[in-house]
Amino acid sequence: MMQQSVLLGIDLGASKISAVVAVREQEDTTALRVTGASLTNQPTGIRQGQITDINSTVEAIRRVVEEALRTAGQIRPDGVLVTVDGIQFKGENLRDTVTISSLDRVITIHDRDRVMEQATNTCKLTKEETVLHKNPQWFHIKGQRDIKNPINMIGDTLEAEVRIIIAPASVLENINRALHLSELQSPRLCYSPIASAQAVLSREDAENGAVVVDIGDQLTHIGVFMSGSLFHSAVIAIGGSHFTRDIEAMKHLGGIKVAERIKRLYGTVLPSGVPAEEMIELEDEGRQVSRRELAEVLQSRAVELLNMVLAEIGRSGIMHEIHGGVHLVGGGALLPHLPILAQHLLGRPRVVLGKVSGLHGLPQIVANPFFTNALGAVKVLSEDLNETFFQPGKPNGIIDWVKGLF
Known about the structure:
The protein is of the alpha+beta class. Helix content is 33%, strand content 29%. The protein contains 11 helices and 18 strands.
């Protein structure tokens, strides 16, 4: 009988928790088949990436995991990866150099890990902060730069450029506590922009410079990638719910639920494309509102968000090296004509809605933007298996080595 690896990806979003189960056949390590999934929009006890009610979080995690495994016909996964992010997460680029002390000057795994650790230690963390990821960007040896993997090469010194992801220790501890209470076996944490990128970026795009913009309900997460590695990341405190609240505040549509429905049915960020006479009937209100005026409100918020995205791309320092495009993901990216507006404001010739690749089965899940991060998580797990960095017995571990993800 063909042996399978059962992989479980979980996305702890601000307003939802989603889970995806995928199986990988041992005879074909490139084939990932999605067999189950679940999504909850019930209260999750999470706000802007932080747990505010752990009992609600545990209940929500258990519910989505049980449903995802049930629909997949599985009892327990072989690996679990959980995507996390939040308003207090931040990143920093660091660099440092070590001397190769061996007589033959051959660089070893120990040398690589040593320079990574030394570079990380140059960051002045507060006692409340901890490092979630150490993401190598480049290595250099004397006389040769921009090396992806220095192991077994010869050099007198080894320099590393590293991006670290930092979060408050209490935030990560409480996430791990919730996962433990949910009775998940050895779950690991992954920074959500890494999962988003793994889901939608091709190897070519990640190598040539690409941006992933994940527009969630409360937050927008940004990851800038170059040479297959994370070079810049940021979180913006604007999400899809802000668009909804704007049109409700300005047009009094009858409450947030009604405003959300109208946004999805009639929303656009290009008012110029809407006839001036087109009206939307508010049956419960007994009146009409101008669809163009509604679009003007949505466009105003979209312009604000996209200008902040543009500023973050500029802070990456590689603005003019982004040749792999800007990829919009998340439920907020579904706002009609947003890629067109983004293409104009960001000055990028290629802005697209991110499309998940490398997975088959359950097309209604693979094509659903609400599952993008969970789908990326199972792809990360699969890559970890390929790279032999996946350690199922490591309790509540994190991914320290993510260079080989693309």
